[in-house]
């Protein structure tokens, strides 16, 4: 594939950013063979797939970071509630101990 990349009559950006109908017109206007056109489209697919995969991984990593932060925040709130609960339990024990 690396050998073919150097022989492409179009830039990679143009191949990736051009929609298929326009790409077909460009390929036809350049007089490229069917095989060359298919190769260009295959290169386009591969590059697009890599981009989609990279974006998907970024979304997953962002979601993981967000969920980890939410978990940490919830653990902090839980810790505060446990402290309040312990404090109220001690007050309750002291009240029962004094009133009995």
UniProtKB/TrEMBL annotation:
GO process terms (BP): regulation of DNA-templated transcription
GO MF terms, alphabetically ordered: DNA binding
Coiled-coil blocks: 57-91
Basic leucine zipper domain residues: 12-93
Keywords associated with the record: Coiled coil, DNA-binding, Transcription, Transcription regulation
Protein name as annotated: Basic leucine zipper domain-containing protein
């Amino acid at each position: 594939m690396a050998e073919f990349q150097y022989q492409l009559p179009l830039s990679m950006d143009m191949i990736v950013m051009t929609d298929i109908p326009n790409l077909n017109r460009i390929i036809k206007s350049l007089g490229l063979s069917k095989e060359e056109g298919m190769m260009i489209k295959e290169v386009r697919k591969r590059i697009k797939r890599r981009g989609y995969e990279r974006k998907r991984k970024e979304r997953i990593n962002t979601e993981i970071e967000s969920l980890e932060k939410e978990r940490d925040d919830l653990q902090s709130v839980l810790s505060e509630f446990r402290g309040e609960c312990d404090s109220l339990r001690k007050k309750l024990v002291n009240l029962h101990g004094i009133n009995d």
